[in-house]
Amino acid sequence: MAMNALMLSMIVVQATLAQADPANYDESMAPDYTLPDPLVTEVGDPVTDADTWFDVRRPELLELFREHVYGYRPGPPEHTGFELIEEDPEALDGAATLRRGNIVIAHEGKGHAFELILFIPNAAEKPVPCILLMNNRDRSNTEPTREEITEFWPAEEVIARGYAVAAVQVNEAAPDNGEEFRQGVMRLFDDPEIEREPNAWGGLAAWGWGASRVLDYFETQYDVDVTRVALLGHSRGGKAALWGGAEDPRFAIAISNESGSGGAALSRRRFGERVSHLTDESRFHYWFCRNFRNFAENEDALPIDQHQLIALMAPRPVYVASAVEDEWADPKGEFLGAWHAGPVYELLGKDGLPVDEQPEPGVAAHGTIGYHIREGSHNLLLEDWNHYMDFADKHFGRE
Ligand code: GTR
User: Fold this and answer.
1) 3-state class of 11 per DSSP?
2) Distance in Å, CA 242 to ligand 1 centroid
3) DSSP result, 234-302
4) Which of 151, 178, 271, 389 could form a Cys-Cys staple with 382, CB 3.0–4.6 A?
5) Looking at the domain that runs over 37-395, which CATH code has it been given?
6) What whole-number distance in Å separates Cα of residue 370 and Cα of residue 374?
7) What is the rounded CA–CA span in Å between residue 75 and residue 144?
8) How far is ligand 1, taken at its centre, from the CA of residue 286, in Å?
9) Which pLDDT belongs to residue 17?
10) Residues 119, 89: Cα–Cα separation, whole Å
11) What are the C-alpha distances in Å from 311 to residues 97, 178, 210, 300, 343?
């Protein structure tokens, strides 16, 4: 009997190993690949001027990402409002005003709300620029009471630099799991009884759509400058930040911290996490539209790659960051994603990345595309935020 149980458990272990899709971490094993050119249209015409980029190529790329990767998100809802929960003009020892409330969305007789936590620097001249974090971790990281403080959302430091700092919980916009992800904002648009289209929006698109509703609110009040909002996310939040910035040109900057596969990292490198991992039924398939599954172990068939996602921000500033130990997110692939977006920026009269090689850890390269890699593991730390604020200072003329 004991023997049988042992054999059974060995079979289970072997089956699990056979199913597990090992990641490649060996640079010499990275495949050769040819990237689709952001500056050649789908019919093969070169894109040599800004008008053709904005009128033809950019719309083509947006459509390809919608159709095959993130899904189609709806336009704005009928109504976005703000319901104040608390306001404290003497928060952070008097340095900031805390404003906490619900972003309230109403559409076709249905409603959904999620919390916005916002600190506005008291000393700064209004309206102020703002960094908005789509928080994919526990809400305690953005604790408005500041009874708990982490580097993931260093409100005190951001306020000291004259920025407003805001946070929303991504899972309040769309729950971060495959069973419930349709229970957030998607509920306002999709009938849960009807089977979804293979290009219906996934969770990442829903999070970015939610972040756009924060901009709707900022548009209605005077102290945060809606034209100077940087959308920041870490990891899955970083994937959502790049796509949210692509879909909503009101975001002045998009910042992806260690966004990896499905974010800044080139899919065709197949290094660390791959499309097959992301779209696995037991993992994160619901972040994307169903069509993305067609490219699991089939990356070369993708009509796009992630450098073109980054290029969709152009000419707006965009930032990609990595961590040395975060091999799962493929730091080199993230760098290359940023680097290969460069030609679009150059076409539009901006610089891309000012370096051709990954800089040393801790050294930031800030063109209109920014990049740094820091020592350590997968996380969003004050060191990263400091680079982001330097970058925003540069682009908002605050140096
Ligand atoms: C991982 C996932 C990554 C990344 C990360 C995170 O498990 O494989 O794509 O998004 O989660 O969000 O922390």
Assistant:
1) helix
2) 15
3) ETHHHHHHHHHHHH-TT-SEEEEES--TTTTS-GGG--SS-HHHHH-TTTTGGGS-GGGGGGTT-GGG-
4) 151
5) 3.40.50.1820
6) 13
7) 31
8) 13
9) 35
10) 9
11) 36, 29, 22, 19, 9
Strand partners, 79: 106
pLDDT in tens, 158-177: 999 999 999 999 999 999 99
Instruction: Give the three-state DSSP class for 157.
Output: helix
Amino acid 9: pLDDT: 44
As a whole number of angstroms, the distance between CA 140 and CA 148 comes to: 7
Angle between helices 58-65 and 236-247 (to 10 degrees): 140
User: What b/e string do you get for 295-309 counting C-beta neighbours within 10 Å, with b at 16 or more?
Assistant: bbeebeebbbbbbbb
Q: What is the 3-state secondary structure (H, E, C) of 58-122?
A: HHHHHHHHHHHHHCECCCCCCEEEEEEEEEEEEEHHHCEEEEEEEEEEEECCEEEEEEEEEEEEC
Residue to mutate, 141, 271, 328, 380, ligand 1, most ligand atoms under 8 Å from C-beta: 328
Angle at 108 between CA 107 and CA 109, to 5 degrees: 95
Mean pLDDT of the chain: 95
Task: Work out the end-to-end distance of the chain between its first and last CA atoms, rounded to an integer number of angstroms.
Answer: 73
103 beta partners: 82, 114
Q: What is the side-by-side strand order in the sheet with 318-323?
A: 79-91, 96-107, 110-121, 164-169, 128-135, 224-234, 253-257, 318-323, 369-374, 365-366
The amino acid that residue 130 corresponds to is C
The two tokens of residue 217 are 């609110």
Ligand 1 site, residue 273, Cβ cutoff 6 A:
yes
- Is residue 305 predicted with pLDDT exceeding 60? yes
